[in-house]
Write a structure and sequence with these properties.
Elements (H helix, E strand, L loop, with lengths): L3 H55 L8 E6 L6 H17 L11 E9 L3 E10 L2 E10 L13 E11 L2 E7 L8 E7 L2 E7 L5 E7 L12 E5 L2 E5 L3 E5 L8 E4 L15 E3 L6 E5 L10 E6 L10 E4 L4 E7 L3 E7 L6 E10 L2
Parallel strand pairs: 1-2
Antiparallel strand pairs: 2-3, 3-4, 5-20, 6-7, 7-8, 8-9, 10-11, 11-12, 12-13, 14-15, 15-16, 16-17, 18-19, 19-20
Length: 351
């Protein structure tokens, strides 16, 4: 049973604690509320700028539809950033009953976007009769949502898994094989061979493709592993065989690729195991006889943004193939040793 003295002391302590708790809750609510308002304002600032520009365009005397929106974004913007602005403008123009059309015969409504150190400036140029009409809107950059998309912390790791004096054209994992391993497509002594390696990179099998190929200065090839078989696409030939069959590989005439055809695969990307974000594998920029830096960019972010992941290789990157979502195989030639090397690169969670 609590005495009157103890009860009095409890009241003295509980009063300040209770008031302090109320103050803390109120402070957190105020901070959270202000953050909510800031985020909401940053999202609507873009829409407000688009709305103001649409109002000024709608007020141009004698302007009639249909109008063709020609969008000219700032060069530093990513494709996703430009698309966001263009969609906002199209929505704002639609709300102002400005008829837009994709037809080439429609009157051009050119919208230019430029960045200054403090503002984003939108400029519309169009012709009505024999005069040019120009309308402008500027919005503070600080009020806009960030161009870089938030992504979970992720890093890029690489591992050398195979090297050879012979030219490596392509490589692929045995994804559906419980034993694992790697298939490597080689060009050596004017012949093309496919190697089967186990999980420790030890050679298990060699298949030579007698495709009667013409010698080529810049040979290229692609290997595809299918259930129980292998398909190889070369310059002018397509060959197929089975690892378990004693019969010779069968080759037939295929599409002949041009010497200058780009080798970088379209849509090469990795999927982050942390949050499912798609990371595009950007084609390395630089001389073909120099060390290459591979860049991975999260979907929707600028290539030169702070979210970009990079990894330097000991020579030019010759080929890359996405494998198993979060990993890829990168083929390069080591400028110091002259060897062709196959690297496994992977996205892993954490900085």
């Amino acid at each position: 049973m609590q005495s009157s003295a103890e009860f009095s002391r409890a009241k003295k302590w509980n009063g300040p604690v209770f008031l302090g708790t109320l103050f803390l809750v109120g402070l957190l609510a105020a901070v959270y509320g202000s953050r909510q308002r800031v985020f909401a304002d940053s999202e609507t600032a873009l829409q407000d700028a688009a709305r103001k520009l649409a109002e000024r365009v709608a007020g141009i005397p004698g302007l009639r539809g249909p109008l063709r929106l020609d969008w000219h974004p700032d060069e530093v913007w990513s494709e996703a950033e430009g698309t966001r602005w263009r969609d906002a403008l199209k929505d704002a123009f639609d709300r102002r009953a400005l008829q837009l059309s994709e037809e080439a015969s429609a009157s051009a409504l050119a919208v230019y976007a430029a960045e200054t150190p403090t503002e984003v400036v939108l400029t519309v140029k169009t012709h009505v009769a024999d005069r040019e009409e120009i309308r402008m809107v500027a919005v503070a950059r600080a009020s806009l949502p960030p161009a870089e998309l938030p992504v979970a912390p992720v890093s890029l790791e690489r591992q050398l898994i195979y090297e050879s004096r012979d030219r490596v054209l392509d490589a692929s994992f045995f994804a559906n094989n419980a034993e694992g391993g790697l298939a490597v497509l080689l060009y050596r002594n004017f012949e093309v061979a496919v190697l089967r390696l186990d999980a420790t990179s030890a050679l298990k099998q060699t298949v030579v493709l007698n495709a009667n190929l013409k010698p080529r200065r810049d040979p290229r090839g692609e290997i595809a592993l299918r259930s129980g078989g292998v398909s190889v696409e070369l310059w002018g030939k397509i060959c197929e065989f089975s690892w378990d069959s004693a019969s010779e590989p069968k080759c037939r005439v295929g599409k002949v690729s041009s010497e200058g055809q780009p080798r970088w695969p379209a849509g090469a990307m990795l999927v982050s195991p942390c949050d499912g974000t798609n990371w595009t594998i950007a084609e390395p920029v630089g001389e073909p006889t120099a060390r290459a830096v591979l860049r991975l960019v999260p979907e929707g972010a600028a290539v030169e943004g702070s979210s970009t992941l990079t990894s330097e290789f000991p020579g030019p990157v010759l080929n890359v193939s996405s494998e198993q979502n979060s990993t890829a195989l990168v083929i390069t030639r080591n400028l110091r040793t002259g060897n062709y090397e196959v690297y496994k690169v992977a996205l892993v969670c954490g900085d």
